[in-house]
Amino acid sequence: MIFGPSHFNLRPPIASAAYSPTSFYTKEMAQSKLEDAVQIMQSPKNTLSSWKVAKATGVSYRSLQRPLLGNPTATERNSNAQLLAPVQESVLEAYIIYLAQTQKIPSGHRVRELALKICQVADPATALPSTTWLSAFINRSQFLEQKRHGKLDFPRVRESGERLIGLFFELLAYYEETFHVTLNNVWNLDEAGFKCGESRAGGFGVAPIGAAHTISHDSSELVTVLEVVSATGKIGVPLFIYKGIHLMEAWFPTQKHDEVTVSTSKTAFIDSDILYEWFHEYFPYAPDHQWSILLLDGHSSHTSDKFLQEALKRKVIPLFYPSHMTNILQPLDRSGFSVAKRYFWAENTGAFAEVFEPSKRSFFETYLSIRLRAFSEYIIQGSWKRPGIYPRNKQLAIREFRRQMNLPLDSPAPDEPAEEEARTDQVSDEDIATPVIADPSGRTVRASLLSGNTQTAIATCKRYYDRFKDTEARLAILDT
Questions:
Q1: Which residue among 181, 209, 256, 328 is buried most deeply as judged by most CB within 10 Å?
Q2: pLDDT bracket for residue 246 (50, 70, 90)
Q3: Considering the domain 157-201+217-398, what is its CATH architecture?
Q4: What's the CA gap between 250 and 239, in Å, rounded?
Q5: 0.70 cut: is pTM over it?
Q6: What distance in Å separates the CA atoms of residue 163 and residue 149, rounded to the nearest whole number?
Q7: Taking the domains of the chain in order of start, what are their residue ranges?
Q8: Distance (Å, rounded) from C-alpha 85 to C-alpha 184?
Q9: What confidence tens digit (pLDDT) does each residue in 393-412 have?
């Protein structure tokens, strides 16, 4: 149960669907070829048979016969099989892409089950979508394709990190343009754990000579805090999750705080039920039936069927970060909670000098005293700017990814081999005068080994080994 101002009582998958940036263009080209073949057959000057026209235009004979006999084309059949609204299909696409990044490719039946749950929000009597709808859904999608064997060997994050970052920015821009989402309606939600008595190391105090100076005030009491911030610098209603079954009056100060919600769980961590109740009651929904975008990580509570259904019902589009990329792309990770923890530790460090006893009540008071400073409009806007989300700059995120992966900041992507330097058989005076050859590409070799690109590493090492041997041979000639 969640307690606020007053007490208020899609794990889906796809039939081997995976992200494919070229599938959309392939479908467009096939449709264009079919239209050209139909025009040739309907021309009064045509003297060729349908077999020859199909072969000349590069389309199958059966595909050409359908429009000639008056049967509906694949595009027309797919349009009639659209059970979900465009925004609902977009949410389904985003969730499938997230599952693919975590190597959890869903089956076709699971995708149909998810579509059923989405449809049942408006009509509980809806039947399970057919396989025809599934094929039509994949054909309409610009980001998915159907895999025959049902399994996808997704590259490691290190090798595909930059492509995942690019896909995230592509989906965000697509949703903003398609559903006319304004900057005020883009939010980021995340949770962080705080220890009630956690303090900053290195605090100073005044004590008699010889007195003990190492004091442990680290309390094992854990509290989970949920925050939601917008791209314009606004902050939503927070949620505190304490460990326990019932809320106790001793945990809170006598002064009431109407802008705070509190709940309990057996582990002090959030679960799907707690998140659903908070989201249903306190999430800042967009006014006038406008759409919102909510950026989330892949926590299990964020991907529950109940939460996804409620989000669609409230016109909120959940967009998941790529796997293992929240420390690069999530605003609350880049500035929000990190600043709040520094302020929180500093407050506890100063309070320890006054015989401070950490407790749930002291945590509640301390966190609320530093919250407005830690989540000021300036800091929140900076947290969206650092990963390059607003203002939009994808290169900031890619550069941070390269820095964390120990990759060259201005080199080609780790999955693209670097161009080899031009070599010459002639050696200059500077080469002969320097018997020890420094390896300026040692960083490139290390980055290539870390990323699994052994061919680039071997080629680089061989190149400098050959240069060293050539110089050593010329030095031997000079000595004789």
A1: 328
A2: confident
A3: 2-Layer Sandwich (3.30)
A4: 18
A5: no
A6: 24
A7: 17-146, 157-201+217-398, 408-479
A8: 24
A9: 999 999 999 888 888 877 65
